[in-house]
């Protein structure tokens, strides 16, 4: 869930005027403007109360009563953090710094200073007035904030080396220019670099005897990937550039700060939750920050999967499906809405979506204490969209509109489990059935329909891909899970029927296997109303064993190249009219042997990737097949093999399939990793009893027919079978006479 605006607290520091300190270091000209930009972002875009945002600046032309000295900065951090803690659980502390940075030989290798670092290491510091705030000090402060229960996000817009100056590359200071032009950055009148000595970044120039924070030219920017401050921490930190790069400013403001503002503003109304990984990807790819004018690459440190301005990681959102309303049509007594999720996403007739206004979400996360504005029940489903009915309400604010968020809150479908009781005692069967009735309900992953049968000659009718059979062993001591083809599901733990928690364990297993089975079944799904037959090339090629292990007990990593090319013809122009480009959008998943589902292309959680006619995905994209930890012991035995399924979801328009992702079964079965919905409690949705299933009206049927013209979706799959011989090849190979033979175990499962 998003952090409530009133629970976000910020300290913003910007130092332009160094007032002759640090041996009269050159002044800066955009740091105070950076603070103004972030202040406006927080109070306007994110609606943070102005009283929660505190600034310390050192501008030109005036002397504030409180300057950003180290003492004042530490005091302000302590004060604001105290207010954040007092606001209750779930608060976020945000620290932004724009100014000089420094780097010197460490003093923390000495015993009297704690012996925290090795000799020859470096100390980094923020050049606050008076004296610098060093990395060890700031690290301890951030750790302390985490221990107080605060979520912490830090952004630093400063340079990589030298003293981090902002001298203009042209005449003048670089201040006072208009906002950065996104469309033509090359026309900027002024570009400044945040380093006073851009031609010198050698560590050899640093005098190890120089006092920390003193000397001429010994300063180096704090942004380094491996240091005391930036090792793996519980906070997230966004840095303006890599250690070997400069950080630039234009128009009298930091380039990274400007684009961070634009990125957060653009992503605020995203219909999917935004992680810090997605934030930095957007920051780099959607801006000119890495072009010839700004050859700097921002870097992100900390857990990349943590939700931006949220308190959880994306693993807490497993299975949560979000879309939006793309069309509305008022009818008598109800509104017919189109939702941007369909059968390819796993939506079925009877599913229920909660609808929310855009202002109820921030960065794809539901704001705290928000009530759903309306609820929609799905009437018809096509490949990519669904038609739903929303009852008319007298509250005009709750009448759905295009752009509203739609979140799946209840699935109508239940998996089915048939339990063969032939070799099961009456006592064990009764205990299982009684325990099953007591299981708590989960609206997003409903408890399966448990059906006991005792006739081994009767095979129950298969009604859906997530039908499972549980059969006891011959001696009746354990239960084994089978799929809808009555085949044993490998790597699924057997169940002891005497275990008191057997019902809960079996329920968790089936809830986890159900999405896996439904995703694998998409390729076999036929839709006669959708004749779309896109042209493409899809192939997975074994790469020469470059990751072979020299240890007989450590399995090798088997690497594959993934090829996907849109082979549709390029559009042509006829009579000044250009033919529509047959663009394809793809998402690639790896379904691993332990039933985990990982989006491997594009980056996990991202929208589908656009592939233009005659173009292909990056040939550098590689896939490493590794043995899951729980299978490593078994992999050492001859005859071992495991199956990875690679599934490509191909559509004619951009969409998102992130909700399919899930951890492997082993992680799922651990109580601390079990699925817990962060959006909704496990309660009956409001209005459920007022919306019975019904037949679609003629108007609704016509709407569904209109949807089908845009409904283009296909699936391609490839099976990778990895054997003991693949994982433990002979260590000694005559490379001069060795000819690589692609293994016959890689088999194409299905095509276009």
UniProtKB/TrEMBL annotation:
Tell me the domain of life: Eukaryota
Residues in Peptidase C14 caspase domain copies: 9-267
Start and end residues of each stretch annotated as Disordered = 194-217
* Pfam families hit by this protein: Peptidase_C14
**Similarity-based family:** Belongs to the peptidase C14B family.
Q: Which PANTHER family match?
A: METACASPASE-1, METACASPASE-4
Q: What is this protein called?
A: Caspase
Species the sequence originates in: Podospora comata
